[in-house]
Write a structure and sequence with these properties.
Layout (H helix, E strand, L loop, with lengths): L1 H17 L6 E4 L2 E3 L12 E7 L1 H11 L2 E4 L5 E5 L10 H9 L3 E4 L5 E6 L2 E4 L6 H12 L1 E7 L6 E2 L7 E2 L2 E3 H9 L9 H12 L4 E5 L4 H6 L7 E4 L16 E5 L7
Helix pairs in contact: 4-6, 5-6
Amino acid sequence: MTEGQLGCLLVLAMHEAGRGRLPAVVSVVTHVVVDRADPAFTDPCKPIGPFLEESVARQLADERGWHVGEDSGRGFRRLVPSPEPGRIVELESIRSLVDGGAIVIAAGGGGVPVVEDGPALCGVDAVIDKDLAAQRLATSLGADALVLVTDIAQVMVDYGTPSARPLGDVTADEVQAYADDGQFPAGSMGPKVRSAVRFVRDGGSTAVITDVERMVTSLAGGTAPAGTRIRRSPAAPCEAGVSSSPRQSAAVNRSGAVS
């Protein structure tokens, strides 16, 4: 429901901003296959829905078989798994639209998680991380660039300490080394950094993490104030399985929609 609503609003906003000069703008409700055996299904950790009093949350958990937990000291919420994104069900349709010149909004909010049951696809209670889903879609399309738009100008290391410093133009290996050192928590910058590193290691040219104001400059590689620009490490070859078709550019908005 949310993917459809936000897709509609984005399409209308882009038509208004383009003042009739844009090509077709299409929003695709996107299904993403996940694996029933993903360990995430044994450890529900993604909070969804409204904040509840603990007594209400516990009652609903008993009645409906939910997992619940406290979220940031603001109350209790339902917890669901957050599995890894797999196959994008509408990939070829999205590719056809892109090849036809359309601006495509897809994989919003991580997409709709489904599992395979023989030839059928069945919905499952889960939330796919929006950044990882955007990376999966961008890589599958053979995109040249992935832009992860957030509320900060640049990724920071040693965040919250006197030695905090921003990352500008860096390689995937450099960023991964910081990640291995625990610099990017799973609940904040971790998924964006992970998605950016995966993208360039899987054949993408550039991944950018920044805010709206610096997005264009960062993608162009200009000298004006820019965000964090992650490029392929010189010695790291592309992994097998990346599309050999001409690469497209991709940008990701706050809800994870790829255009």
